[in-house]
Amino acid sequence: MILAGKAALVTGGFSGIGRATALAMAREGARVAVADVQEPGETVAAINAAGGQAIAIVADVTSEDAVSAMVARCVAAFGRVDIAFNNAGIAPRHVGPSGQRTHEMSAASFRGMLDVNLTGVFLCMKYELAQMLAQGGGAIVNTASVAGLVGLPTAVNYTAAKHGVIGLTRAAALEYATDHIRVNAVCPGYVRTPMTDPTMAVRGEYLISLVPARRLGEPEEVAEAVVWLCSDRASFVTGSAYTIDGGYSAS
Ligand SMILES: NC(=O)c1ccc[n+]([C@@H]2O[C@H](COP(=O)([O-])OP(=O)(O)OC[C@H]3O[C@@H](n4cnc5c(N)ncnc54)[C@H](O)[C@@H]3O)[C@@H](O)[C@H]2O)c1
């Protein structure tokens, strides 16, 4: 129970990596506020059924008012926010041969992606950090991607957003390093979730051939790393971009 007594907030907790991480945090003893733009009641029910403690929050991370209310709701329920996993995100459309290169992408598509995948993380951090400063410490993990480390062709919007997540993770880690607040990012490779299902159906064999481990990751394998980064066992880890990618970015 490496998160015993901690109050956690997870965005994008309705499905995929966020859902698996909310469940893993609860198994490790945390009380979990599960947030998503879609009602995350099913994740909360699964946690409560397993003997954990969770609440559901509907919040769109692109709305500053909604994010502020989300953090306030977690504090109202649990008294604090020890751990925050800023994970909500959207996928690039039509990656691959049918995708759009940079000169073909609309400004709306670029801005829309940054709004959720980058500004959303900034807004969450802004309100979580204020709370963590007030309470004397905390740990934040942001979901970047291997697309935060290397370029993903026909997804310049997603690549820019995820590189940005690593940048704001590093800058914030430096700003709060002496405030007992750690800020890290995780960089998953291809993971089996509703986000990757459509792409895998069309180009699965090719994408798996790019992964040294020759398989997709499971959401639970990302959750393990996030739980550890949020725990006191990672007490000297801050400003890192931690890869969980079956070797993808090492090749
Ligand atoms: N699956 C992968 O292969 C992979 C790889 C690298 C990074 N990621 C990142 O992991 C994160 C989780 O993705 P996933 O694969 O679990 O996908 P997913 O689609 O299963 O989960 C994403 C969740 O985010 C929520 N969400 C979307 N927009 C939101 C908004 N504006 N406000 C609040 N919630 C919102 C969705 O409702 C959904 O529940 C994303 O940031 C994604 O970019 C995924």
Explain what the structure shows.
It contains 7 helices and 7 strands; from the N terminus they run βαβαβαβαβαβααβ. Helix 3 runs parallel beside helix 4 and helix 4 runs parallel beside helix 5. The model has no long low-confidence stretch (mean pLDDT 97). It is of the alpha/beta class and 251 residues long. It has a single domain, classed as Rossmann fold (3-Layer(aba) Sandwich). It has a 7-stranded parallel beta sheet, sandwiched between helices. Helix 5 links the parallel strand 5 and strand 6. Bound molecules: nicotinamide-adenine-dinucleotide. The site of nicotinamide-adenine-dinucleotide has 28 residues, from helix 1 and helix 4. Nicotinamide-adenine-dinucleotide binds next to helix 1 and helix 4.
> What is the makeup of the main sheet?
7 strands, parallel
What CATH calls the topology is Rossmann fold
Q: Which class best fits the helix and strand makeup?
A: alpha/beta
In spatial order, strands of the major sheet run 3-2-1-4-5-6-7
- Report the C-alpha radius of gyration, rounded: 17 Å
Return residue spans where pLDDT drops below 50 for at least 5 consecutive residues: none
Ions, cofactors and other ligands present here are: nicotinamide-adenine-dinucleotide
Mean pLDDT: 97
Our estimate of the beta-strand percent is 15-25%
Helix tally? 7
| Apparent shape | globular
User: Portion of residues in helices?
Assistant: 40-55%
| Count of separate structural domains | 1
Helix-strand topology string: EHEHEHEHEHEHHE
Q: Can you identify the CATH class?
A: Alpha Beta
E-strand count: 7
CATH superfamily: NAD(P)-binding Rossmann-like Domain
Return the CATH architecture: 3-Layer(aba) Sandwich
